Amino acid sequence: MSVLNNIQRHPIKAPEVEQFIREKKLSALHSGDQECLFVCLEQRIPILLTDDMALRTAARRFNVVPVGSLGIVVAAFKRGEASLKEAERYIADLYDVSSLFVTRAIVELAIEQLRAGTK
Fold first, then answer.
1. What spatial distance separates the first Cα and last Cα of the chain, rounded to whole Å?
2. What is the CA radius of gyration of the chain?
3. CA-to-CA distance for 66 and 59, rounded, in angstroms?
4. How far is CA 55 from CA 30, 61, 111, in A?
5. Cα–Cα separations (whole angstroms), residue 33 to 48, 70, 93, 112
6. Which DSSP symbol is given to 6?
7. What contacts 83, CB < 8 A, 6 or more positions away?
8. Can you tell me the distance from the alpha carbon of 34 to that of 111, in angstroms, rounded to the nearest whole number?
9. Which residue has the higher pLDDT, 103 or 62?
10. Does residue 37 come out as left (phi exceeding 0), alpha (psi in the -120 to 50 range) or beta?
C-alpha cells in the first residue's frame, strides 16, 4: 500500500474562480469540476483524475491530462501496486459494482490490454 504524503489542500478565492469560469467559458461544468480545473491550472498540475466526460474535454483544452478510473487501475498494475488478478477484478468491478458508466466491451478491452502487457 502506498503512503500518500503528497496530498495538499489548495484554498481558493471565489472571485478568482468566478473570473476564471467567465474567461475560459466553463459555466457548463459542475462547480467542483470548475474548481478542480482552476487548481490544476493555477498550480501547474498536469494531471486531473476524473471520469466526467465534460471535464475531460475541458481539461484537454488546457493541456491538462485527464485520467479516469480505468487509467488509475492500469497505472497501479504497471507500477506493481496491483497484481494482474487484482487489476482485472478492479476493472470488472467498475462495470459490475460502481455507478461509473462503462460498457462491458471497454472492460473486456482493458483486461485484454492488461494481459497483453504481461506477455
1. 25
2. 17
3. 6
4. 9, 10, 25
5. 10, 19, 24, 31
6. T
7. 77
8. 32
9. 62
10. alpha
Chain position carrying cell 468566478: 18
Summarize the chain as % helix, strand, coil (round to 5).
60, 5, 35
- Considering the entire predicted model, what is its pTM? 0.77
* Amino acid identity for residue 113 in this structure: Q
Residue 85 grid coordinates: 488478478
Predicted confidence (pLDDT) per residue in 63-82, tens digit: 999 998 888 898 899 889 99
- Would you state the cell numbers that stand for residue 75, as one nine-digit string? 497505472
Where is 48: in which H helix or E strand?
A: strand 47-49
3-state class of 66 per DSSP? strand
Tens-place pLDDT, residues 40-68: 999 999 999 998 999 999 999 999 999 98
Cα 110 to chain center, whole Å? 16
Overall residue count recorded for the chain in this entry: 119
